[in-house]
Automatic annotation (TrEMBL):
<feature type="signal peptide">
    <location>
        <begin position="1"/>
        <end position="29"/>
    </location>
</feature>
<dbReference type="GO" id="GO:0008113">
    <property type="term" value="F:peptide-methionine (S)-S-oxide reductase activity"/>
</dbReference>
<feature type="domain" description="Peptide methionine sulphoxide reductase MsrA">
    <location>
        <begin position="34"/>
        <end position="181"/>
    </location>
</feature>
<dbReference type="InterPro" id="IPR036509">
    <property type="entry name" value="Met_Sox_Rdtase_MsrA_sf"/>
</dbReference>
<comment type="function">
    <text>Has an important function as a repair enzyme for proteins that have been inactivated by oxidation. Catalyzes the reversible oxidation-reduction of methionine sulfoxide in proteins to methionine.</text>
</comment>
<dbReference type="GO" id="GO:0033744">
    <property type="term" value="F:L-methionine:thioredoxin-disulfide S-oxidoreductase activity"/>
</dbReference>
<dbReference type="Pfam" id="PF01625">
    <property type="entry name" value="PMSR"/>
</dbReference>
<keyword id="KW-0732">Signal</keyword>
<dbReference type="InterPro" id="IPR002569">
    <property type="entry name" value="Met_Sox_Rdtase_MsrA_dom"/>
</dbReference>
<protein>
    <recommendedName>
        <fullName>Peptide methionine sulfoxide reductase MsrA</fullName>
        <ecNumber>1.8.4.11</ecNumber>
    </recommendedName>
</protein>
<keyword id="KW-0560">Oxidoreductase</keyword>
<feature type="active site">
    <location>
        <position position="40"/>
    </location>
</feature>
<comment type="similarity">
    <text>Belongs to the MsrA Met sulfoxide reductase family.</text>
</comment>
Length: 212
């Protein structure tokens, strides 16, 4: 009897460990990621953080060849964000909708008051599925704006390596609320978004025409 109880306890713990090994990795494997560049990463990070299904948003650099880029040395890279999301809660298509409504798609020389290659708008894709969806979103955005897709400056490029930015850039809007709000206003970001998208500015879920 005294020997039997420890054996049951060991068996019980073994079953729990097996279940954790089998099911926890599978749950994590369901998570997906998306990488977008659209001007200052402080703003783009803040635009996505509150979306249902978004698990985390990191500011960083990608698109260039510089190894271990920093804020002072990221030549060739764009300021970008990496979104980790639960596709059961929010789809990549919905993230694309939110992305378009938070950028100026006509400006390929930067975004708003931030100028230069580091700030140009790019949708980075990691596989063929994301590539197709990104191209579909470009067509839909052009139709939404009654413009030719050739007149939109957003590029669709293959994702290489995403380098996380310095700690002080992460969650900047939350940790430096006053400074962030002043920067965003003085940069004219929301004013320009209103000019381009009208009442649909910053609204990613409502889309006048459903994406295929």
């Amino acid at each position: 009897m005294f020997i039997f109880k420890p054996i049951l306890r060991i068996l019980y713990l073994t079953i729990i460990c097996i279940c954790l090994l089998l099911f926890v990795p599978q749950a994590n494997a369901l998570n997906d990621s998306a990488v977008f560049a659209g001007g200052c990463f402080w703003c783009l990070e803040h635009d996505f953080e509150s979306l249902k299904g978004v698990l985390s948003v990191e500011s960083g650099y990608t698109g260039g060849k510089t190894i271990k880029p920093t804020y002072k040395n990221h030549k060739g890279h764009q300021e970008a964000i990496k979104i980790t999301f639960d596709p059961l809660e929010v789809s990549f298509e919905e993230l694309l909708k939110t992305y378009w409504r938070n950028i100026d798609p006509y400006d390929g020389g930067g975004q708003f008051c931030d100028r230069g290659d580091s700030y140009r708008p790019v949708i980075f894709y990691k596989d063929n599925s994301q590539y197709d969806l990104a191209n579909n979103s470009l067509i839909n955005a052009a139709e939404e704006l009654s413009a030719s897709s050739n007149n939109l400056a957003v590029k669709i490029e293959r994702l290489d390596e995403f380098w996380e930015a310095e700690d002080y850039h992460q969650d900047f809007a939350q940790r430096n609320s006053v400074k962030y709000k002043f920067y965003r206003y003085s940069c004219g970001r929301d004013q320009r978004l209103d000019e381009v998208w009208g009442v649909n500015a910053r609204e990613g879920i409502k889309w006048l025409k459903k994406m295929p």
